[in-house]
Structure formats: structure tokens, C-alpha cells
Design a protein that fits this description.
alpha+beta; Lipocalin; ten-stranded antiparallel beta sheet; 6 helices; 13% helix
Amino acid sequence: MTHRFPIGCLLVAAVVAVSSPAAAQGPRMTAERLAELAKKATPHLADGKSDLNGTWDHLGGIEFVRPQNLNNGSVCVVGCPPAAAAGAGGAGARAGGAGARAGGPPAAPPAPNFPKYKQEFLAKVKDLSERQVEVDTALQCQPPGVPRIGPPAKIVQTAREVLFLYDDVNGSFFRIIPTDGRTHRKDLPASYLGDAIGRYEGDALVVESVNFNEETWLSDNGAFHTKDLKVIERLRRVGDTVQYEATAYDPAVLVEPWKERTQTLWLTDREIEESPRCEDRDLDLIKDGSHHDNPR
């Protein structure tokens, strides 16, 4: 289970997506199946809180790549023409997207969702985006930060705290989130994943994270942040699914808070594994510094 795929590996990802049997068979999850899972009874713990324990899958990793067969016999990976123009027989569709069907034409790519920066910082964003393969620490085996790391792959929930476990392509990361009413610690240095505390609002777990270093980005393409970044995540279990939302607050550079697209996780019996070793051996081989247009 890989939940985030660095830009530098997109070419390999595209080959895997096109050539693997799973890709040829369509998506691993459909909107219809997610709706069925959501209709199941939502389990609760003895204290009445929704039970978030479990291993959770979602369409991360390389699954934003939606290869489709074109009329001329070739395969389009990103930037594909509309399904009607490409012809029937698309090779994949984003699960949960409007009209997604296993074996049917791929859904239209989502509209761009990029943080809105103040005018005086647009040049910096452009410069970082153009030099992403050189300066993006997530492409150099460093922790990707929050919210870029995405939802957790496994949740362990107790009466006093919640643990988020990740099997990210950059390594096996964890976050310990107290839910017993304590405040943010004052004795911690700034870090990649920040300092998190949690609280419950009805059926939702709300996680507030602060005290980040400035080494990470909010997303790809130069979306930098300052040390004053605050991220609010909301997780709400619905049947055997979890609705995950994340919003970034950084008023020093952003025009408005930036909310990621809501993601739907589903319960799985596939346990996470230790992530493979991440080793950067590409920077010395870069020829022109170009990278793909991010469709996410």
C-alpha cells in the first residue's frame, strides 16, 4: 500500500499503471462499492466515540494516473482527451469520481486545487515549481510533511491518544496525537510532521497540528509554507469508510485557507508493511530539471 508517489518516479509509475494486470482490470474501488461500505453500521467504542481503529486504504500512490486506450492503438497516461474523443475501452478510472465504473471510460480529471498565494509570493512559488526536482525535499527521501503525507494507513485509537501510522514511499512514519485535553507542547523543536493534538466533535476526530519546520511543501509544484503553518484534519467514520479532510492555515502567505479534496478511505484486511528503504540517486543524473504537470 503506497499512499504518495513522488514526481521524480512518475515515469516508472506510468509504466506500472499501464502494464500491470490490476490496471487492465479497472480500479480497485468504485463509487458504488464505497456507497455500499458506507451503508454499514458505524461501530462505536464503549465511550461512545466512533471506532477509527483499523487499516485504511485509499486511492493514493500512482492511482491518480488514469491510462486510457486511444483509437489509434496507443495508450494515454496523463493529459488525455475527453473519453468521447478517445473512444470506449478506457483502461482505468479514479475510484469515487463522478460516473466512475469498472471497465468504463475514465472520469474527467478533477479541477486544479492549488493553494492561493498572495501576489508578492507568486514569483517564489513559480521558481520553486520550476526547480522542484532540485529543491523538493520530498524527492530527497525526507518526510513529506502535513497535509502532503495524506491520510494515515493505519489508526490505533485509545482513550488517551490516537496513533497514525504511514507506509509512505519515503519511509515508515508515525504521529502520536493526544486526545485527553492537553495543549500543544512548548518544549519541542519544529519538525517535518509538526506537533499534533486531537479532540472529538460529535462523530469526528479533529486533529490540530502546528510547530512545523519550513522544509516541506503543502503539495507539489512549489506550494511552500512558513513556520506558522497550522493544519486541521477531520476524520469521520461512516460505516466501513472514513471521510478525511485537511485544511492548511498560513495567513502570512496564503490569501485564504487551503482545503484539500475530501478523500474516502475504506477498511481493509491488508496490513501495512515496513516501507522499503528510500535512497536518492537521481539528482546527479538530472539533465534539464523538467517535471510533469501534476493532475492531482
